[in-house]
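Margin note from the TA: students keep mixing up input and output lines. Inputs are the sequences; the output is the structure of the whole complex. Example:
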Amino acid sequence: MSTVPRQRSGFALLLALVSWLFLLGSGAAMAQADPAAAQVERQQTQPLNNAPVWREVRSGEAHFTTVRGPETGVLIQTEGQVWRQWRNGPITFYGGILLLVVPTAIGLFYAVKGAVKLHGAPTGRRMQRFSTFERVVHWGTAVTFVVLGITGVCILFGKHFIAPVFGTAVLGGLLTAGKAVHNYIGPLFGVFTLLMIVAFLRDNVWQAIDSVWIRKAGGIASGEHVPSGRFNFGEKTWFWIGVTFLGLIVAGSGLVMDFPNFGQTRADMQLANIIHGVGAILLIALSLGHIYMGTIGVEGAYQSMKTGYVDEAWAKEHHEVWYDEVKAGRSGHP
Amino acid sequence: MARMKFLCDAERCIECNGCVTACKNEHEVPWGVNRRRVVTINDGVPGERSMSVACMHCSDAPCVAVCPTNVIYQTEEGIVLHDKDGCIGCGYCFYACPFGAPQFPNGPAAFGARGKMDKCTFCAGGPEENGSQAEFEKYGRNRIAEGKLPLCAEMCSTKALLAGDAAELSEIFRDRVLRRGKGVEAWGWMTAYGKEEAKK
């Protein structure tokens, strides 16, 4: 089983990817040596030697063919093997481990520490935390993300956990629907992600109070309530790294594969697939933390996004600076 | 047990595209799909070479490895076949294949709606019952079940394209190389068969 990529060293794979990327960039320059002239010359000096032709066969360059279609003039493209090694190797293996470890860790944390309860008594007075627009954008992103996450995980890992249990026929049926859903919902997720960035950008910029949150690690371990603005530093991290950075990367790389009709080469789509897989797995792992905090992890958090309103006691405990600003009429935001 | 392979002799191929036509006609392949094609290198200059290319039925086939629904499989003779019923048209086999063999009836369509993958079956049909109408409609003729070899090679006017048991192909090719004293490379063989056979 020398071909099991998992057994290869990570360094060799890294080296392969780097040289692959290098070749992608320098391929055009190398072809400038005019292999046709080399072959003509070789035919005169060594009529029995076709070495220039064999170099061209393996070059990945397009040659003449009457058959029309994507890259039909290419005889051998070697990058496919590298893509296969990365996708079936580290992305499946380490990605799979990450997607098992993170939920387990969250489950253990919940079992040991439990939910963050509201300490003070609810006042009964409610204040608006999210506008209707913000909630529509949030749930639009959330629903499309969960659908894409589940179908995407099945496309990469389904053959490892669905097929052995239910058989390939069930997997085939599920993925026929799953791939269609993934491909048609994907662009919608991209639109929602952009709206999300627009909606929440203003309150996710750095504030001096965030340094206190970082110093006390959000009070996660101590259980202490750390004052913060409308969003604390943890939420801001999720906004910038999760929603914005990974969200845009995953949506963009997805579009490269979703619309192959713009003349992308196989190399383009292989690279997009690698980026999409790594980005999506990291995004799913981070989202599990966000979903935990927004549902069972913090009492009252789910209601705030469901109804748009929070109790004043909740606001004072979790986002004291924001609470003070709203009370002083300085917030300008729900 | 035989190990079926293709071999295209670049010293003999004259780019007549007879193999392409024979394949399309035998299997009634839909518009836009070509299971086989001929590529010419240095067209029109001294030393030009043409090569016929289709699925090479690789050992350790990359398409088999990356298929998310596990519908591509290899027979005991080494022929790579697929079950169209479970194909979702994701295109991963096309990403992975060194030879550009997997084809899609809708081409590179928006939203990745390519349709079900189609490729050379080594004239061995698919998982349906041998010689059935359902098999013909999805995969084309099953000549192997009738005791015949792939039609592209059978029809090749210069016998550049050979199909059959690897040992016999190698025998014929070695004899040719010895007689003519050149053209020792069986193009694509290292890419297709350079690895050990996948464990079944």
